[in-house]
Amino acid sequence: MLAGEVIRHDTFAPLHRDRLTNCKKPFVANLRDRDKRELDEIGVPRDVVADVLVRGHVVGAIFPHQWMPAAVVAFHPITARCVSASLLATDDWSKVARRVACWGVRVAKPKLLSMGFTRAECRVMDGHDDAIRLLSHLGFVRECVLPNYGASGVTFHQFAWRAENHVRSLSA
Fold first, then answer.
1. Domains of the chain: total
2. pLDDT of 114-135, one tens digit each?
């Protein structure tokens, strides 16, 4: 990840731009096709994705597989009590998905609550089933459908987690 850095492949690393760009296979170049299309639909150029994920995040992590970034999760403040959740992954997503879900419940959610955040939002492109499954495991529920949200008119769905009524475990 970083020069000379060894991160156990079965854990996570703090979110840092160099961990996404200064590796043998840059993270953004290896994103899943679905994630690339979603970025295109919301208008985020791939050459700035690493900066967008890292800049201003309050909680975030990189999940490596074979010592290369396989998934990145970041939470960015929208208001004093609300964050936006972002997840991008490579084709190695299935190898880190369980770790991401456990981290979300055991690390991210308590950290966000301790910082005073009581709501998290995430918008997902229609048909992005693995993202929707993860959000459900983390206690997010669909709030609304956003027709014609993407650049090409594709539908997105808004999911949200609220502290006062979403305290679910992975077994729920």
1. 1
2. 999 999 999 999 999 999 999 9
